[in-house]
Amino acid sequence: MTTADLALPIKSAEPSTSTMKALVYHGPGKPAWESKPRPTLQHEEDAIVRITTSTICGTDLHILKGDLSAVLDGRILGHEGIGVVEQVGKDVSEFHVGDKVIISCVTACLRCDFCKKRMYSHCRNGGWILGYTLDGTQAEYVRIPYADGSLYALPEGGDEDAFVMLSDILPTGFECGVLNGQVKPGDTVAIVGAGPVGIAVLLTAQFYSPSEIIMIDLDDKRLAVAKQFGATTTINSADGHAADQVMKFTKGAGVDVAIEAVGLPATFDICQGIIGAGGHIANVGVHGKPVTLHMEKLWDRNISLTTRLVDTVTTPMLLKIVESGKLQPHKLVTHTFPMKDILKAYDTFGNAAKDGALKVVLKAEEVVLKAEAQ
Ligand SMILES: NC(=O)c1ccc[n+]([C@@H]2O[C@H](COP(=O)([O-])OP(=O)(O)OC[C@H]3O[C@@H](n4cnc5c(N)ncnc54)[C@H](O)[C@@H]3O)[C@@H](O)[C@H]2O)c1
Ligand SMILES: [Zn+2]
Ligand SMILES: [Zn+2]
Questions:
Q1: Which of its termini does the chain have fewer beta carbons within 10 Å around, N or C?
Q2: CATH number of 170-306
């Protein structure tokens, strides 16, 4: 495809002006809210979306820690959001200017070999690129490649705080945790990490009626929230004895499913220490450091260990459940900030225990002004 091919025609609300504000990564520990050029259409399958709601993910915290070296200086972060379509390339057929859309954290061309296997996470033309190797959603505008495969229509009148959880955490918790962990009715499930992703695992694990869900974290406030969302037992692992407590609780049997939703060697070790014979360890956390695989203990345990980058193939199904009100993920939102205060929002989410933060939501200026006027 040549640049000339890509140029026109486009369907547009109005021509884009030059600059916007965005959260820009300048290396570990160095985010900045600054001016960037507004994105423009580059391919016929692109859409430009004006962000109304965005959020911060635990993965953004990993990026700021320097765990993901593929993120370069100057990158706009963020891979979750809802917005309004401002412009579409001529080959976008499902979305039109003015549509309200949920942005998927994973971009899918729907045509390559991985997309045909429904492994959108490894799409040859997309995958997880937003806020990683392509500019993301913590901005006033974002360019979404392959819009038809990467956006979902926001249901009429849908609560953005609920539906934004479909960008990432609900499909992630369900696919990487619950489906890969093969949660079954009656199972004893342990979830290590009670952040938004761990809570999304907790919510979606209950589709299958496990008999026990043990939630493990360092933060008592998040553990209390987990109880409200259906955890049957909570364990604070600060004393380093979480695995012993789980083994005692299960009378030495260990758990059927252990789901890692933090991304640290210590939390992966808890999963290895509590998995019962025939069980499944499902890793969800993004890891920046190697872990030790204890084959000397696990070789005869008939276990499985899975890893997964969210494919977002279950997003349409989860969308229906949120629409029905059977899942109410807006309850995860503890803090709302105007987008321009995103650095404060990062501070709150990054020090969640201090302010009792779970999911931190960011609103565009126009949304804030509208809410104030009401
Ligand atoms: N696989 C994927 O596709 C995918 C997608 C999205 C997020 N993630 C990853 O999922 C993980 C969770 O994301 P989140 O948004 O919930 O992050 P988060 O940072 O809000 O939550 C992490 C939780 O882990 C707890 N924790 C930290 N150290 C601990 C320890 N030693 N023992 C017990 N608990 C500990 C924290 O208190 C916190 O509640 C992150 O690693 C994120 O990168 C993976
Ligand atoms: Zn994420
Ligand atoms: Zn593809």
A1: C
A2: 3.40.50.720
